[in-house]
Amino acid sequence: MVCSGGALDQIEHKRPVRDFHLKEVESMAANVDSSKSEKRHEKFVPLVAFECGFRNKFMGEDGTWVNDVNRYATCQSGKLDILKYCRKAYPKLDITNIVEYSHETKIGSWCREEGKPCKWTHTVRPYQCIVGEFHSEALQVPHGCRFGHVNDRQSCDDYSHWKDEARKQCQSKVAESKRMSVRSFAVLEPCGLDLFTGVEFVCCPSDDKSAG
């Protein structure tokens, strides 16, 4: 359904989500983190995570984080380097782009650059490796909440910009004398490496901010 920029509609907005399947991660030896305390993802999503001074991690097919055994695989920050690392971690997948993950993640068993022991825990924001054609994440709209989007093909900005835009759009809305806040959001069509043309979002009434 097409909505005007910034318009809010009480609808449930769903987009197709591609299933990603990783047959086997080849060409990269890895130590699988078998800690039972590691949080498993219910559905496999190709993710990579970085922390300076520690070896890179990537998500295995079984939903556990895997340590890269290469001591030089560490501290990626440039967008192109992250894209290249995604392709190295998932050589069987058609990686076309990257996007910051929707939330920070607590990950255990990080290895120092020199190797074992792998006992450190860090909270980081992983990057999702986009496979094939980009599909925006499906957003659910609970009762009393509203869906909206801003999509400007003249704009081409990163994840942080669109996260801020979603927050501002929701904070400007009022429902039942309560200001609204962002419940969830998703970036829209890519226009470059980790750059996007807009954002869609779900605004819900905030418990702690009432409209004066």
UniProtKB/TrEMBL annotation:
Location of region: GFLD subdomain = 42-135
Q: Which stretches make up the E1 domain?
A: 42-206
Q: Which PROSITE patterns match?
A: APP_CUBD, APP_E1
SUPFAM superfamilies xrefs: A heparin-binding domain (SSF56491), Amyloid beta a4 protein copper binding domain (domain 2) (SSF89811)
- Annotated Pfam families: APP_Cu_bd (PF12924), APP_N (PF02177)
* Disulphide bridges, residue numbers: 52-75, 111-118
Please list where the region (CuBD subdomain) is annotated: 143-206
A molecular function (GO) held by this record is: transition metal ion binding
Question: Keyword set for this entry?
Answer: Disulfide bond, Glycoprotein, Membrane, Signal, Transmembrane, Transmembrane helix
Where does the record place it? Membrane
Q: Might you report a single GO cellular component term?
A: neuron projection
Q: Which domain of life is it from?
A: Eukaryota
InterPro entries associated with the record: Amyloid_Cu-bd_sf, Amyloid_glyco, Amyloid_glyco_Cu-bd, Amyloid_glyco_extra, Amyloid_glyco_heparin-bd, Amyloid_glyco_heparin-bd_sf, APP_CUBD_CS
Q: Which BP terms does GO give this entry?
A: axonogenesis; central nervous system development
Membrane topology according to the record: Single-pass type I membrane protein
What family does the database annotate? Belongs to the APP family.
Q: What is this protein called?
A: A4_EXTRA domain-containing protein
- Species name for this entry? Toxocara canis (Canine roundworm)
Q: Taxonomic lineage of this organism? A: Eukaryota, Metazoa, Ecdysozoa, Nematoda, Chromadorea
